[in-house]
What does this fold into?
Amino acid sequence: MDTIPVERIRNIGFMAHIDAGKTTTTERILFYSGVTYKMGEVHDGTAVMDWMDQEQERGITITSACTTTHWKDYQINIIDTPGHVDFTAEVERSLRVLDGGIVVLCAVGGVEPQTEKVWFQAEKYRVPRIAYINKMDRVGADHFDVMEQLQTKLKANPLLLQLPLGTENDFSGVIDLIEMKAYRYGSDLLGATHEEVAVPAELHEEAELYRERLVEQVAEHDLEVMEHFIEKKLVDATMLRAGVRRVTLELAAIPVLIGSSFKNKAVQMLLDAIVAFLPSPRDVSAIRGFSPRTGEEITREQSTTEPLAALVFKIMSDTYMGHLIYFRVYSGTMKAGGVVVNPILKKRVRITRILKMHANKREEVKEVGAGDIAATVGMADVSTGDTLCDERNPIILDAISFPEPVVSATIEPRHTSDHKKLDEVLDKLKVEDPTLTVKINRETGQKIVSGMGELHLEVVRERIRRDFSVETKLGKPRVAYQETIRKVARGEEKYFQQAGGHSQFGHVVLELRPTNGADKLRFVASIKDDVVPRRFHAAVEAGVREAMDFGFIAGYPVTGVIVALVGGSLDEENSTELGYKVAASMAFQKAFQAADPVLLEPIMKLEIRVQDDYLGEVMGDLNSRQGRVTHLDNRHGLHVIDVRVPMSNMFGYATALRTLTQGRASYAMEFADYAPMTDEKMQDVLKNQLGIYSLN
Ligand code: GDP
It folds into this structure.
């Protein structure tokens, strides 16, 4: 099979507030575009995009998988985007590889808090969007009200492209304002066929009016349509469609479609709109990276004529295949059997197989070209965010950044016989999910998992149970603090031990300095070879790293230190790697304790949107949580508060805000950075945090 021309690829993602109908809509799209033959219903639990049982149970989609389908000579790659705030990293990761988005809204619920959150994330990545107002069949459905909310709550410029035929229960199809034709669905139950009907006489005037308004709105941002509009010439369907496409790609407006996915009405028109208005990879600006040889910036067109550059954006463990590695090709062509380079690992790898994932089957292909997404298997130690590229033209694409985990909890198997299995499972999950970390407390031996929030850890536990049949107990979630130092200090340790005829010797002097927030660790060994020979330096660094896993204030990981090996000695007969490693760990501990250590706490960045009436309550509450307001904006009576608050004061905030404002506020929260604590707070934390990490 030839690779598909890049102009005919659409990489898209559905974004929505939970329950708006994202899953149902995706399902219908896969059905109409011929991938699934039996329509799965969310409530039957057979939805194809819901790969994992628990997603169906919770009604949220957690893992982003990519599914390929076809519509009228176009290839559509659907990248699944999760909806919950705790999975911000997943959302950002998806936004990185998709080119266009469909925001699914409920015709009754309208713009909800999570809609706002994903909307602003999409704005940040400049992703062109279509809005789809679903559930037009519901009692109380009001697409005009939703249009208004798009304007007021999201400051969007919505372009209504359709009017409904019938309301609520009688909703049976749409009038297409671009073509001025009406389409009725429902002669068969699955809505796979529809009939074109005349625009009903009683709606004709209204349709004319809305078409004129549409032309006017497009003309405001598009030269070609404007010229016709001013000269009062007819703007025909072809010209209007092209105009809508241009203003959408420029992010000047959002086309709005309506439908009822559940009742199988007008979903095909959404497919048409995806193809007509959302960008192909070619419409998106050139991609950026840098040369691993020179560090210079490189830009590439998304074209098959350029050398290969692909980005690994997701790794999923698969029962049959081991790991499935999802990648997007940005330039060139990836060929099965070919050799590529992973410049971050400095490794050559052979691409054995290339798979296109469809909803219910996988298809092996020979190659994938620029702009397309596929998966491969059998690649050891690749990580999310790695680049795969042409050997002769190496490039490292801008990596996806993942926030630091902010919540930790102990985890242990319910049955002691499952310890080994749990370790294996956690190893697998870590590869899939870069925001999940697992550590063992060296004193208590407890396993500690850390992630993006309470729900994130819950979901991990649930997956371990469902997919790997290991029952576990999760401790109470705690804030994931870190430890660092505030001044320069030295530590020395001479280690010598004799056991069973073997001796171990190591002697080092380490000097620690704070990096003030930059790297986790910078290790330098500027020392003469006859003091501590080069062959032991790696062991010294390993000893330091091991010591840093659990710090010495309260066992939290250490960060932000420059460690210099500045002294020591050699014992020609007894020096060993193990000896230096142990000595380094102990010297690090001494130096750390002398270097004015401090606990760092995660600070969250919040954007809160609140109506006038509740501003006082919300601000007062933020104050009591030690929030620091960084920006306050008033947009037509809607206040937008940017604030920074310690994570430890944010447990249960969703409920608190709802109670405080009777649901008239929404917020989005993400990790900002780690900041040193005051001594007073540190004492407090140390008193209350015993249990998960033990005190020395
Ligand atoms: P998601 O959470 O956004 O993925 O939403 P789902 O697709 O799981 O849908 C949530 C609920 O709304 C389910 O019970 C669906 O059956 C229902 N639903 C979805 N689309 C429609 C629709 O067009 N009309 C009506 N009445 N219900 C719908």
In short: The first strand starts at residue 9 and ends at 16. The two ends are 63 Å apart (CA to CA). Residues 16, 18-24, 42-43, 59, 134-135, 137-138, 260-263 surround guanosine-5'-diphosphate (CB under 6 Å).
